[in-house]
Amino acid sequence: VFDGEKIKFLPYSPGNRPDVAKVKSLYILGDGNLPVNYRLKKNDNGDWKVFDIIIDGISLLKNYRSDFKNHVKNKGIESLIKKLNDN
User: Fold this and answer.
1) pTM, 2 dp
2) What dihedral angle (degrees, nearest 10) is formed by the CA atoms of 53, 56, 62, 66?
3) Are 8 and 25 in contact (CB under 8 A)?
């Protein structure tokens, strides 16, 4: 739970692509810091959208991609769509 915890955003350094950004932060916890990085992409309207969150080095995008791939392989795409809509 991060209730009342502080977040420190680290200095931004641009990458190679002007339409992709990585924003680094630290969640300041009572027992240490937790690195949380956000990967963003600029859409056609010029808005930035988060497409991945990396918590302590673990990418949610890669994690869910693997889970979704296994679900589709075993139960089909319609089952995955239904499961996502039900949640």
Assistant:
1) 0.75
2) -130
3) yes
What pLDDT, on the 0 to 100 scale, is given for residue 2?
Answer: 56
Measured CA distances, 27 to 12, 18, 37, 50, 83 (Å): 16, 26, 10, 18, 31
- Give the CA count within 13 Å in the CB-facing half-sphere of 41: 5
Q: Judge whether 7 and 25 are in contact, CB under 8 Å.
A: yes
CA distance 72 to 20: 28
Question: What's the mean per-residue pLDDT of the chain?
Answer: 91
Assess contact for 55 and 36: CB atoms under 8 A. Answer: yes
1-29 confidence digits (pLDDT tens):
556 679 999 999 888 999 999 999 999 98
